[in-house]
Automatic annotation (TrEMBL):
Gene3D superfamilies on file: AF1437-like domain superfamily, HAD superfamily/HAD-like
Protein name: Conserved hypothetical membrane-spanning protein
Length: 339
């Protein structure tokens, strides 16, 4: 099939949330800081190319502490439903792209959050991939609960890689609650690439017809797959990990530019998108007016002028500095600094 199709990460390109961080911050003492420590440990394991380790495994590592502080799936669902915050333009962007091409979300987020977000935005939930979590299936005995509460304090006191690695390798791995950790397979890193391959296989798509957008280390393999197979690979308000893996970098407080690019890609192909970017950087006003048929999208883009750049070996650090400002503004520094 020659149909174009769009696959996107959720947190970053669509929502400003980091759902797991926010759950931790709400339910666990000093939970935001604690989650950030585990996220940094997770990033180090990914960067060291630890065999068999999946990017996004912070969502596994935090789970024993969810149990220790009494969280249930009902808590996760209700919190997620009440705390969905979309980037400006996202509702119209989702509606528009779903009307012109097949659209999928591939997210490291828990399935409870993705279901809540789909219900709220009108996204087709059957077209989503996320980290499946069955939190209530696993019990925590009193002895292990007490030990985990002590471990929580220990990690806050000593957040070194060596201490955390010792705890998870020599202590938590020997606890019964470790079965909960082992039950979860995060859809991050190669998991996102595998989800794309599944989408392609099930629908007989061609890789070069893929448009993918992401913003973090969990999108690295998916962005590289799109880029290396002739598709459209977009880092949207991305950190250095995503910029280094993408062909295009966008910094914007509004994501409707993705709808414009999707429309061009769908109608005219990849080369037309690159022509649009070159024209846009020479004369943004005229280019937007010429390329967008949707009056509402055009008006919002003229007000919220995005930065759009083709990634080269020479500009990656410059783009990272540019997107960091927008990333922190849109998502806040605590979430913006997560890998």
């Amino acid at each position: 099939m020659n149909d174009k199709f769009y696959v996107t990460d959720c947190e970053g390109p669509l929502s400003i949330n980091d759902n797991a961080y926010e759950i931790s911050d709400f339910f666990i003492p000093e939970g935001g800081h604690f989650f950030s420590i585990l996220s940094n440990y997770d990033d180090m394991l990914v960067e060291e190319n630890t065999e068999g380790y999946l990017a996004g495994s912070t969502l596994k590592l935090i789970l024993p502490f969810f149990k220790a502080y009494g969280l249930t799936e009902k808590d996760l669902i209700e919190f997620s439903e009440d705390n969905i915050f979309m980037i400006d333009g996202a509702y119209n962007m989702i509606k528009y792209i779903q009307s012109i091409m097949p659209c999928y979300i591939v997210s490291t987020s828990y399935n409870q959050y993705i279901k809540a977000l789909s219900d709220k935005t009108g996204f087709i939930y059957e077209n989503t991939y996320s980290t499946n979590l069955q939190l209530d299936k696993y019990d925590l005995n009193q002895e292990e609960q007490d030990k985990l509460l002590d471990i929580h304090d220990n990690i806050l006191f000593d957040s070194s890689f060596e201490n955390i690695h010792r705890i998870f390798t020599n202590v938590i791995s020997k606890m019964e609650i470790n079965n909960l950790i082992e039950s979860v397979k995060p859809v991050g890193g190669i998991g996102k690439r595998d989800a794309i391959l599944d989408i392609i296989d099930k629908n007989n798509y061609k890789p070069e017809n893929l448009m993918y957008s992401g913003d973090s280390i969990t999108d690295k393999e998916a962005l590289e797959y799109a880029r290396d197979n002739g598709g459209l690979s977009i880092s949207f308000n991305g950190n250095i990990h995503s910029i280094e893996s993408a062909s295009i970098s966008i910094a914007s407080t509004n994501n409707l530019i993705l709808a414009v690019i999707a429309d061009i890609f769908n109608k005219k192909g990849k080369s037309a998108v690159y022509d649009f970017i070159n024209d846009y950087n020479n004369e943004s006003l005229e280019t937007i007016l010429n390329c967008s048929d949707n009056i509402e999208i055009t008006q919002q883009l003229l007000v919220n002028k995005p930065s759009i750049d083709i990634v080269t070996n020479d500009n990656k650090e410059t783009l990272n500095n540019m997107t960091k400002v927008v990333r922190d503004k849109v998502r806040g520094k605590n979430i913006g600094n997560l890998g």
